[in-house]
Amino acid sequence: MHPLRRHIEEVISLEDAEFDHVLNHFTPIKKRKHQYLIQEGELINKEYWVVKGCLRAYVLDESGREHIIQFALEDWWVTDYQAFEKEVTSQIYIDCLEDCELLYITKSDREKLSQEFHKMERFWAKKTKFGYIASQNRVLSLLKNTAKERYELMSAQYPNIIQRVSKKMIASYLGVSRETLSRLY
Questions:
Q1: Separation between Cα atoms, residue 14 and residue 12, nearest integer Å
Q2: Which CATH architecture has domain 3-109?
Q3: SS3 at position 150
Q4: Quick one: which of 8, 38, 105, 133 has the fewest CB in 10 Å?
């Protein structure tokens, strides 16, 4: 079974012809380690689904310090959602931490599929809700939990990330220094 079909069918079911039609709206791309998918200031009209690889989404503050917002592994969606939805320039960077294989869909194709197949509209609505919940939980964790609790929660929820990214990046994601992270484990 195609990995995208397996992913979609975790939420909705599709007939073979429906999936073929959906897949025709996606374009495969490959990116090498360290290549950008998105850079700050770009207009964004694509949403990406990770077939293989690991990416990070981050912002740079005024002093050039990196703040990681999200990691994206296999079966995860990634883009600058504000730029994608509002058709404004990106405020974030997304780059590849490993060689990556992705599928992307343009905003217009996503809207077209949602109109043609209400099943796909339900799929994206559920995925959006799941993403919002994950984002809300991350903010709550940053506000309520100690650095150690945030690390333990991340380790339990995302063991693959812990194994695939540097401690410096984990520290950035958790909002702590590399030194603080070193003291936690």
A1: 7
A2: Sandwich (2.60)
A3: helix
A4: 133
